[in-house]
């Protein structure tokens, strides 16, 4: 039996523009997902996915063949199990993509029982897909970035977070090979940083598509994002941090032609708020001299994490 585990992710700077080569700051989260592989005597893959409460939310069986993994929908083993065709098809796509990258993967008649467990709500956008991709890549002994490219696509910063235990900068060059560097991002004012969930899952692929359609990015914008990222990493005071977040929000707001989340939902908040990743959902970063949980709860946003409870390091 083998177990693989990958970290979740949050993109603090460089959203959208990271796709065009900007330097982004990202942090792996304490929350993540594990994948356990155990051999069985059946010529199939029996897959079970557990949520953060230990409940099986997806279960399926797939027949194994040397050339591909065709779908075999079994009768649900429990009335509470979701037997979703989209999820099954996506999982088959990932496994077959892994086989394309490593033809020796799953070529025997050996069956497998696979158990996945994530310790975060999959609606939070912390990396349900990226942690799965990285875990399957480790199991199949293939490059996780290549597997991502053949399946979900995206910049790949989430894979870097899955593989690293410290804050990182992430940058794509012309070759599309990522430059991943560990950084010392441990602000002494981190007790004034909070992550707030906006109560809706954001589809990053939709956000990326809209960004690409606008096609407004240029070298000057990329340079400004790079400077903001470096300054955010090294700044020494909360007030300076707030100024940098505000500037970053204004730049991206103009770039994607969307109102900032603070002006749209929290214009009376005494602090700064920055969108993380695709705008409009998932988590935002809030800065506040005092605990803002009550403020956000009264507005209907009850999931608030202090920085230290979310960031891995």
TrEMBL record:
Biological classification of the source = Bacteria, Pseudomonadati, Bacteroidota, Flavobacteriia, Flavobacteriales
Task: State whether keyword Protein transport applies.
Answer: no
Q: Which UniProt keywords apply?
A: Kinase, Transferase
Protein name from the UniProt record:
GHMP kinase
Kindly give the InterPro entries that the UniProt entry links to this protein: GHMP_GYDIA-like (IPR047765), Ribosomal_Su5_D2-typ_SF (IPR020568), Ribsml_uS5_D2-typ_fold_subgr (IPR014721)
Q: Does the keyword Transferase apply?
A: yes
From which organism does this entry originate? Answer: Winogradskyella flava
MF GO annotations: kinase activity
Q: Gene3D superfamilies, alphabetically?
A: 3.30.230.10
């Amino acid at each position: 039996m083998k177990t693989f585990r990958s970290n979740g992710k949050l993109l603090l700077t460089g959203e959208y523009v990271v796709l065009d080569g900007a330097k982004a700051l990202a942090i792996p989260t304490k929350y993540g997902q594990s994948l356990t592989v155990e051999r069985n005597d059946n010529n199939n893959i029996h897959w079970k996915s557990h949520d953060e409460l230990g409940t099986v939310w997806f279960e399926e069986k797939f027949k194994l063949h040397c050339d591909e993994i065709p779908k075999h929908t079994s009768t649900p083993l429990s009335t509470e199990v979701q037997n979703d065709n989209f999820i099954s098809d996506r999982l088959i796509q990932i496994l077959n993509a892994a086989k394309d990258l490593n033809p020796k993967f799953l070529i025997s008649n050996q069956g497998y029982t696979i158990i996945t467990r994530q310790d975060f709500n999959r609606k939070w956008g912390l990396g349900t897909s990226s942690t799965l991709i990285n875990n399957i890549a480790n199991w199949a002994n293939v490059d996780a970035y290549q597997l991502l490219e053949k399946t979900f696509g995206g910049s790949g910063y989430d894979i870097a977070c899955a593989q690293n235990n410290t804050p990182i900068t992430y940058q794509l060059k012309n070759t599309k090979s990522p430059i991943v560097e560990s950084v010392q991002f441990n602000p002494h004012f981190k007790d004034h940083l909070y992550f707030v969930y906006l109560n809706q899952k954001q589809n990053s692929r939709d956000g990326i598509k809209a960004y690409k359609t606008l096609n407004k990015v240029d070298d000057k914008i990329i340079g400004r994002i790079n400077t903001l990222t470096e300054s955010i990493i090294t700044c020494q005071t909360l007030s300076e941090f707030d100024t940098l977040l505000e500037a970053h929000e204004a730049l991206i707001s103009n770039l994607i032609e969307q109102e900032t989340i603070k002006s749209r939902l929290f214009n009376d908040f005494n602090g700064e708020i920055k969108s993380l990743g695709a705008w409009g959902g998932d988590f935002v970063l809030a800065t506040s001299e005092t605990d803002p949980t009550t403020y956000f709860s009264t507005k209907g946003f009850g999931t608030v994490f202090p920085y230290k409870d979310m960031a891995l390091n």
